[in-house]
Design brief:
Layout: H1 2-30, H2 43-46, E1 51-54, E2 57-59, E3 68-72, E4 75-79, H3 88-98, E5 106-110, H4 116-119, H5 122-126, E6 132-136, H6 137-147, E7 156-158, E8 163-166, E9 169-175, E10 184-192, E11 195-202, H7 212-226, E12 231-236, H8 249-257, H9 270-290
Parallel strand pairs: 4-5, 5-6, 6-7, 11-12
Antiparallel strand pairs: 1-2, 2-3, 3-4, 8-9, 9-10, 10-11
């Protein structure tokens, strides 16, 4: 009897142990794999001092990827959340504080594309701030595919033609697929010493598909953007998202810091933005000719 009871207890204990191990294995496997450290996301290499671009627009990102804050009369809007690597959440919040803003004033967070460098930090950020997070449906699906149950919470879905109003600021939103299926772009006002300009921020201005239908849609969207009147300012999601030969984000920042009274703001370049769109359309058309 005693031997049988002992064996029964051992078997039950072994089953319990195996159950716990299986649960732990499931938990570990459900977590997203850690991001690979590279020169483009190593914070010891990519950290940059934040700075104000316009009266109401601040760069708070890294050397490779942009994250921006739009300041309104009724709170802040954060654009993209950078990586999910150690130190990034504190870095982003610290950069926002460095430019004199309070991260607790963030009312909305817009995720412009479902690539990890743009949304990876969102879930951790949601534990630190009380804001509503939005993205396009197709890119919400990308986030879930990548992170499963650890994907960030999405409070509202962005659809083409939506507007987002906060205080004295209105953002006009477009879904512009090509870089990702749900890449989002936005148009909004910026101010330089009180002078208003219309800015356009394309969430992913390079096509990453060899599907002819995707490329054709991407080209049509760029043509649609070209027809929007009075765009004078381009904001880039990456440091080099500008017309070839005109300098990157940090070249512009240096010119802004050195600007003399009466000189035009280096981001106010309407002809350059049109030329940038033409350049991207030409690249996409060349890709379309090579598409299978």
């Amino acid at each position: 009897m005693y031997k049988d009871d002992f064996m029964t207890r051992c078997s039950a204990g072994l089953i319990s142990l195996l159950t716990v191990l299986l649960c732990l294995a499931h938990t570990v496997s459900a977590q997203p794999p850690p991001a690979r450290i590279s020169r483009g996301n190593d914070l010891s290499l990519m950290a940059r001092e934040p700075f104000r671009i316009f009266d109401n627009l601040y760069f708070v990102g890294i050397g490779e990827v942009g994250s921006y804050v739009i300041q309104t009369s009724d709170g802040l809007i954060l654009i993209d959340t950078l990586w999910d690597l150690p130190g990034y959440t504190d870095y982003l919040l610290g950069n926002i504080r460095k430019v004199g803003l309070d991260p607790m004033d963030i009312e909305y967070v817009l995720i412009l594309q479902g690539h990890r460098d743009h949304f990876g930090g969102a879930a951790a950020l949601q534990e630190r701030i009380d804001a509503r997070f939005g993205t396009a449906e197709e890119d919400r699906k990308l986030m879930v595919e990548a992170f499963g149950e650890y994907a960030p919470r999405i409070d509202f879905i962005i659809e083409d033609g939506d507007t987002l109003n906060l205080g004295d600021t209105t953002l006009h939103l477009q879904v512009t697929p090509g870089h990702t299926p749900g890449t989002t772009s936005l148009r909004f006002p910026v101010y330089d010493a009180g002078m208003a300009y219309q800015a356009y921020f394309h969430g992913g201005p390079s096509v990453r598909s060899d599907d002819p239908a995707v490329i054709e849609h991407y080209i049509a969207d760029l043509e649609r953007i070209k027809r929007i009147p009075d765009i004078e300012v381009q904001i880039g999601g990456h440091y080099d998202s500008y017309l070839s030969g005109t300098g990157d984000l940090f070249d512009r920042a240096a010119r802004l810091a050195a600007r003399q009274p009466g000189e035009l703001h280096p981001w106010v370049q309407p002809e350059e933005f049109q030329a940038f769109l033409d350049e991207r359309i030409a690249i996409a058309r060349a890709a379309l000719q090579k598409a299978p």
